[in-house]
Backbone:
């Protein structure tokens, strides 16, 4: 098996021209994969402001942005809502079912979806997405099947990287409409 | 003294075929070894979601998973219980005593135990385990006696690494039973 | 386009002789760019003590220090006030407007301002400042236009680095007046 | 000026034979130099469990361990007391005054003190200590005057490193008295 490319090959690059939908996992993609456990029982997760800015920019320019995560934490939901994301699926058992339903209800063509995941529960969605991306610190099984491995880690710019690349190729990253 | 191998040698590799029990220290193994002290006196520790997924997978496939830690913090206990771990020994004075008792009561053969520790209180258990593993940022005394040094740091995938290697060799990592 | 210099070129170095005002963005400059989201909905950000010491030293020696940030969080304001900063503009929509107003009201010559930012909302201020600086982990668009890229990351010494360089060139870094 | 050695030279190594007292700064030495600011106004700091174990070991074997810090935070005090440290000076204005008083009252010979600091307020103590040590991420002025630069960062094993080196040379690191 060839190792997945850090540099987008031509086939993947062509697909970026058509992406109109970004779907992200949370832990290890939008966060650095750590869960901070407080002695009170409360939990905390680390998000990245530059990822957040890119998500807000994508939404403003009309891209679909959705979240599908197995975890379910109130702090995560608040952070995602603050960024303006409407389609937030937390506590999901089968990601591929939710993914199929989301695409159908929103008339999204899976070939136009860029999905970024980092671990085994993401595989069944990744193989059904136009571009399957992952952070550089994804699990080994994911690194093997990804179309594109971002040079950035989860929660440290991997999400920013893929949004910025798609929007720059489509020339509306800095454009104020 | 030879330095411990990052790559498993053949003797250690053979032992992985027989491992049916994983035992982990907490601080510096399941966490990154930091303790966050809040001004309120509350404490927090950082766990890694990919480690957690591997632990849940191991339990689902019938492996024994136990925790032996000198520390004792409510947030840690809640995180470990959430992962489905039943045998959680916190606030332990003598790890080797608890280890011997655990093996006896659960009819676990120490030769089939993979134990991962990172500091001096772990030594007496490590020398009694089939495979003594440690994260790459373990204390110098531990790096010298480990059968296997994971390329990953504590709280950053060292636990995931050893569980994944054992379960892949035994061919039930991705298998859905 | 030439890539921005890690080493100050002569033109930029000369400008450091005249800097009397430091203006900083918060997220990704004074912090490491992460936002910790707690399950309670509370948020947290990471500041760097060595940056803080440099800011206090600059204020003591008579430099102007101001903050212009799009974010608005109570914990951030408290940290900045603790450091002795008086001009703190949070929740800012247009940074360049606030910047122009600040310079006018305080009779600050923009040519004598060192501004450090890390993302697109900072560009319109950076191109109006005597020295436009950024941390080494700034967004790609910022790395391209900066006069100076600090070898340090945001929230990990980038602010310290520029204050220390300016004050050492002007020979009042260690001087006790 | 020669750069400070990562490897202890012979003069410094000889001094380690006589060290009976460890004095540490807090921020950037016992912590990683970050201050986490919560939206509630609460603060948090990150300590390292392996540092803590070494401090407990040193105290058990009869070494003096003291803390001199400019900061003053309740969470810090609790963490230090938990480790068994008795001489804790927080909120200190002049570190060299407190240092002189501590040495006098406890009949400590400054030549037998290893002090670890990381920033300018530490200089006047460092030049009065038998061994002046610092973490690898200390401020540039400190890196220039240190007798020994630990290869580890603050809050990531620098404290552990110096305690372990002194106690191993004096052959009571692993010894159970």
Residues:
């Amino acid at each position: 098996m060839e190792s997945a490319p850090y540099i987008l090959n031509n086939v993947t690059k062509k697909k970026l021209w058509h992406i109109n939908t970004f779907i992200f996992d949370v832990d290890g993609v939008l966060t650095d994969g750590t869960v901070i456990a407080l002695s009170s029982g409360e939990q905390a997760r680390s998000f990245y402001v530059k990822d957040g800015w890119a998500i807000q920019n994508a939404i403003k320019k009309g891209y679909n942005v959705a979240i599908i995560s197995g975890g379910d934490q109130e702090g995560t939901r608040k952070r995602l809502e603050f960024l303006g994301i409407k389609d937030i699926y937390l506590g999901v058992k089968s990601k591929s079912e939710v993914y199929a339903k989301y695409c159908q209800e929103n008339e999204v063509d899976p070939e136009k979806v860029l999905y970024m995941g980092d671990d085994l529960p993401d595989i069944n969605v990744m193989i059904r997405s136009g571009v399957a991306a992952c952070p550089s610190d994804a699990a080994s099984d994911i690194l093997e099947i990804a179309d594109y491995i971002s040079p950035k880690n989860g929660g440290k710019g991997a999400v920013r990287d893929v949004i910025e690349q798609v929007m720059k190729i489509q020339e509306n990253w800095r454009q104020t409409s």
Summary: Residues 49-60 of chain A form the longest helix (12 residues).
